[in-house]
Design brief:
- With 422 residues, the chain is mainly alpha-helical.
- 49% of the residues lie in helices and 4% in strands.
- The chain has helices at 2-29, 51-57, 59-66, 84-87, 90-94, 113-119, 137-144, 146-151, 154-157, 183-191, 201-207, 235-244, 266-270, 275-278, 283-287, 310-313, 321-357, 364-386, 395-418, and strands spanning 217-219, 224-226, 250-251, 258-259, 290-293, 296-299.
- Helix 17 (321-357) packs antiparallel against helix 18.
- The relative contact order is 0.10.
- Mean pLDDT is 93; it is low at 31-36.
């Protein structure tokens, strides 16, 4: 009898505990979970430009960012500074009459962005030139408005620019959420009917790079930074945009053609149907791959050539990294060989137009056609020269663009000689 009583008591306790546990689970399931950011040692002020302060909370990311001060070389690109004009004297003829014919150096890493911009021999005048060079820019634009920032002379802004490209350019303080801080990209996407705030995290891992690694120009007297994407982002769309405004950066003194200088259209080139982009690969997957430090996993902020950490960058998807590295080498060699042939065709076109322009009685309309062809050909060659992968970001598109550039350059040369009347 006593034993039955104990059994009943234990059974009752179990039932009560089960009911209590069920109630707790039901209560918990009906609660809205609080969004939790990464653990913080210190609070970071909004738009804080100093990466060292962010580094207190994120030491691994900060230490890897410091590696962008290293000056490393790859076969064709890298971040070791050298004069492109000395390596390829033909550039002086191609950029004649423009600042790039006096100084054109290979860029160093993000760590050096302020120093290199301040010391460039190309003598920038517009404050717009600072837009992509410093983590101070988002805060200054918030204080001044973007339009006033752009319109302020370069030298007046220089004392306010202290920190290079860093955390505040791409992240929200404390949450580390990726964000777009440059109005030009926000405006360009809005004009295409795209809401960047609805982008996925993977999409944002490319869009934050597209704030700066794009083609752009300074619009109007206020030098307002503008992306020429109104008609699309492929090279033909960009050309059509500039043609619709009769825009040119300078007039070539030998050919007389109204020329366009490309900037660094990595985003446009990569997203024009490349294999990796179609597979959903973001810029950060290759240039900021995930690393391991013991049990910790973090995104490297040593933004450099993936060849410098190919095991992590390429090995995340490809099992044979040696094959991938050789494949990259082959693609880049082929692209640069065709690039050289394109330059030969352009120099020949410039020479022909200059010679015929000084010939009495030359057909003015045919010469005008030759100049238009020179503009179109050099735009395509410069697009490939200015993107930062020596063709690897989109190999098929790169060779298509260069093939068209050679064809247009040779057409320009032929048109010029045809302008001489018998």
């Amino acid at each position: 009898m006593k034993q039955n009583r104990i059994v009943w008591i234990l059974s009752g306790i179990i039932i009560i505990l089960a009911l209590a546990l069920g109630a707790v689970l039901i209560f918990a399931s009906n609660q809205t979970p609080k969004k939790r950011g990464p653990d913080q040692l210190v609070q970071i002020a909004p738009l804080e430009p100093d990466p060292q302060k962010w580094g207190v909370n994120y030491p691994r990311q900060y230490d890897s960012w410091l590696k962008t001060q290293e000056q490393v070389a790859t076969t064709w690109v890298g971040s070791q500074p050298y004069s492109k004009l000395e390596r390829d004297p033909r550039l002086k003829a191609l950029f004649a009459g423009y600042a790039f014919s006096t100084e054109y150096n290979e860029d160093r890493g993000h760590y050096w962005s302020v120093e290199d911009a301040a010391k460039t021999g190309r003598n920038p005048t517009a404050g717009t030139c600072w837009t992509c060079k410093s983590a101070n820019v988002p805060g200054l634009m918030a204080e001044m408005t973007p339009a006033k920032f752009y319109a302020t002379p370069f030298k007046e802004l220089t004392p306010l620019i202290e920190h290079p490209i860093a955390c505040a350019d791409c992240h929200k303080a404390n949450t580390m959420e990726l964000t777009i801080t440059r109005p030009a990209l926000q405006e360009a996407l809005a004009a295409q009917g795209k809401d960047w705030t609805k982008a996925t995290r993977q999409e944002m891992r490319t869009l934050v790079c597209a704030q700066c690694h794009v083609e752009y120009y300074f619009k109007g007297e206020g030098k307002y930074l503008t992306f020429p994407w109104e008609k699309g982002t492929r090279i033909e769309n960009i050309e059509a945009y500039y043609d619709s405004y009769n825009f040119s950066d300078w007039t070539h003194p030998q050919s007389g053609a109204p020329m366009l200088k490309m900037q660094h259209p990595d985003f446009e080139f990569y997203t024009a149907g490349s294999t990796h982009y179609a597979a959903g690969v973001a810029c950060a997957d290759c240039h900021m791959p995930y690393m391991r430090d013991g049990a910790a996993k973090y995104s490297s902020h040593w933004v450099a050539s993936p060849l410098k950490y190919s095991e992590q960058a390429c090995g995340a998807c490809h099992y044979d990294v040696d094959y991938v590295e050789q494949r990259v080498a082959n693609i880049q060699l082929q692209t640069m060989q065709v690039m050289s042939r394109t330059e030969e065709a352009l120099v020949a076109a410039i020479s022909a137009i200059q010679t015929v322009s000084n010939t009495v009685g030359a057909d003015a309309q045919l010469l005008a056609d030759a100049r238009a062809l020179h503009r179109r050909a050099q735009l395509r060659w410069d697009f490939m020269l200015s993107e930062n992968s020596a063709g690897f970001h989109n190999p098929e598109e790169g060779l298509r663009i260069l093939a068209e550039a050679i064809d247009l350059a040779r057409q320009a040369e032929l048109k010029a000689w045809q302008a001489i009347k018998p």
